[in-house]
Amino acid sequence: MDRFEEVAQLMGARGGDAYFGEDVSQLEHALQAAWLASEADGSPTMIAAALLHDVGHLLHDLSEDVAKHGVDTRHEEDGYRWLMERFGPSIAEPVRAHVAAKRYLCAVEPEYFARLSEASLQSLALQGGPFNADEVLEFERMPWYRNAVQLRRWDDEAKTPGLKVPSLETYSQLLCIV
Ligand code: FE
User: Fold this and answer.
1) Which of 33, 116, 126, 146 has the most CB atoms at less than 10 Å from its CB?
2) What are the φ/ψ torsions at residue 108 (nearest 5 degrees)?
3) Cα of 33 to ligand 1 centre, how many Å?
4) Domain extents for the chain?
5) How far apart are CA 41 and CA 47, in angstroms?
């Protein structure tokens, strides 16, 4: 199986799952994030990272409302390991940091924090809440932090019910070259 086939298999098996507390499926969320990345002239690497940023959610068997039950699935770590094996650090590292990027943005942008959905606030609490001043500085020292923040913004926007965006097949070549 090539990398695209592996992704297609995961999306086929689990992509129909709801995206935690939002009115889009995991597949719709992934496709919208990738589309936002390409509309913003993101690099092929960043488009692939956007498409795959939540792959960790497709790798476990917990139900979609785990956050409501106080469980943080640490999907960014599962996703990171899966992506490192297949794509390497330029895709895996921003994905690993996309949850931390939310804690970072909540600390540095009050208007970002004010816009979070209820589901997103719930998961923020489980993830440790907004960063403190030291954590902000530490985050800004990471080489991938800007990519992680960018990825986070696409992630947050990729929740429009019924939005028509290009299909998964659109990315078949891209996933084999990045
Ligand atoms: Fe996401």
Assistant:
1) 33
2) -100, -15
3) 8
4) 20-177
5) 9
Residue 109 structure tokens: 């942008």
What was the pLDDT predicted at 67? Answer: 55
* Cα 2 to ligand 1 centre (Å): 24
Task: Give tens-digit pLDDT for 8-27.
Answer: 999 999 999 888 778 899 99
Task: Give me the pLDDT at residue 120, please.
Answer: 86
Give the separation between CA 136 and CA 142, rounded to whole angstroms. Answer: 10
Domain 20-177: which CATH number of 1.10.3210.10, 1.20.1420.30, 1.10.1740.10, 3.90.199.10: 1.10.3210.10
Beta-strand (E) ranges in the chain? Answer: none
Q: What is the pLDDT of residue 112?
A: 96
pLDDT, tens digit (0-9, with 9 covering 90-100), for 97-127: 999 999 999 999 999 999 988 888 998 998 8
CA distance 95 to 58: 14
Q: 15-19, 30-34, 150-154: which has the minimum mean pLDDT?
A: 15-19
C-alpha of residue 88 to centroid of ligand 1, in Å: 20
Give residue 117 CA to ligand 1 midpoint distance, Å. Answer: 13
